[in-house]
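Board notes (copied after class):
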Amino acid sequence: MKTTITRANERGTANHGWLKAAHYFSFGGWQNPNKIHFGALRVLNDDWIAGGGAFPTHPHDNMEIVTIPFTGALKHKDSTGGAGIIQAGDVQIMSAGTGVQHSEANESISEPVTLFQLWVFPKKKNITPRYDQRTFEIKEREGKWQVVVSPLETDNALWINQDARFALANIKAGKKISYENAFKENGVYLIVIKGSIEIGEVKFSEKDAVGIADTNSFEIKVLEDAELLAVEVPMNGF
């Protein structure tokens, strides 16, 4: 098993006043040649958006963009006709494909929004742009993995144009949980949203992340009540 560790304090940061972001991979004004991507996972931003804050309309193409909010509500609109509001429990995906314009804004003028936004290189390029979102019951991830993004029909999740899989779990202290790859030879980028865990002899705390490759399964020991996100992606050709 090969691991690549990023501690919370090693992430790149940006402060635009209305937007405070932490970058796990090179993004915008923060560029680190050692942190470009993990397989097909190109971007993972941990964003805080102030009340009234907004990303104006901007373009994307040939990227799968997943947004997972934790607090507050985010309003979205794009040139496919897709529009909606997402909050904790919701997950949104947009296939930029041949090209799309979209905007995002905090629904509140006073309360902040916190979220992860992740970009994954697509399996097929230049597909017709598409947008989807779904509400997932948070209680359904207690003590187990809840798959929220996957191309596999058996996962009953939001579809993604890639052999990739996103799963969330809330696990109590003292418990263990294993992750089994859905696609052989994929890697898994695991983020500790809250709490602390141990993999092997290594401890990970809030907002730490570890890329795990060259294995199709691994076990996590939970030290403090933890919220986890596992992002499984292809490793080759990126």
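Comment from the instructor: The first strand starts at residue 2 and ends at 6. The chain has two domains: 11-135, 138-233.
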